[in-house]
Structure formats: C-alpha cells, structure tokens
Amino acid sequence: MEIEVVLGWYPNFSLSDLHRPDGGIPSLAEAIPLLLEQTEQAPSDPFMVLARSGQYFMQCLSSHAGWLLEKREGDGDHHYRALEPMEQWKASSMDPSLMERIFKKPHHRGWYLTRELVTEAMLAYATGRPEPDWLEWERVEV
Fold first, then answer.
1. How does pLDDT run across 49-68, given as a tens digit for each residue?
2. Which terminus of the chain has fewer CB atoms gathered within 10 Å of its CB, N or C?
3. What 8-state DSSP symbol labels residue 107?
4. Per the structure, how many domains does the chain have?
5. Global pTM exceeds 0.85
6. Is residue 74 within 8 Å of residue 56, measured between CB atoms?
7. For 83-115, what is each residue's pLDDT tens digit?
8. Whole domain around residue 99: which residue ranges?
C-alpha cells in the first residue's frame, strides 16, 4: 500500500528528502513523528496529509489550540473529524464551583488533540494497523 505524504509547508516533499544519521532514507513510520514536530513549528500551512488513493486520506492541522485530525473514506459523505479522547474531555469539564456547575452551559467534546495522539493515529493509518482504542470519529460536512 503506497502512501503519499503532503506537507503544506514543504511543497513536493518526498521521503528521500530526509536522511537518518546513518545516511539512509527513513521509513514512513520513522518519519511521521519528525514530520509532525516540524509541522507544528512551520511558520505557515501547518498541515500534513497521508493519502492512500483518490479520496482516501488522513490529514491533520496544527493550531495554537492543538491538533485537528480528519479522515476521508471515498467522498464528502464519508469525511470525519476525530473527537478528543473521553478521558481528556472528562478532565477538561471538571468544575469545582457549585454555581458554575449549575449555570454552566453543557460542555461538548472538542476536536483538539495532542501531537502525541495525532502521531499514534497517523502511524496506525500509515502502517495499516487498527486505529487506537481512544479514537472516535464524528462525521463532518465538507
């Protein structure tokens, strides 16, 4: 299964542009953590796409709030965004103040992930392994 890597901040990227300390070209699995770190630091267009073919891909975007992770499985009716893990959501919605708990607007799960979670998901996608257990998708209109 051939996967194309598209980097918003590095037009016409190829894995052969990277080199391991021994001078060899890294595998995609070796390159993903480094590419995500570099994407996070990119001055513009901080996104990365792993494309299998046509409309089958996983993409991520780095922002000041965290990472957005999406995938498409064939067409616009099958475009999904990852939800933040349930444990992360529960921790962020804790509020010790009784008045704030009573009058607080409902907190909905967000979409922002850490780079570590995005790395885990992208590695699974690139290597054909099952998605991580924490990963849940929400269909989005595009």
1. 999 988 999 999 999 999 99
2. N
3. P
4. 1
5. no
6. yes
7. 998 765 445 545 556 655 556 554 567 899 999
8. 4-139
